[in-house]
Amino acid sequence: MNTSSYYDQIGGAPVVRDVVDRFYVRVLGDDDLKPYFAGVDMPRLKRHMVVLLCSVLGGPEPYEGRDLGEAHAGMGITSEHYDKVGEHLFAVLQESGVGEDILRDVGLVLGKVKSSIVAEPAETAD
Question: Residue 57 gets which letter from DSSP?
Answer without folding.
Answer: T
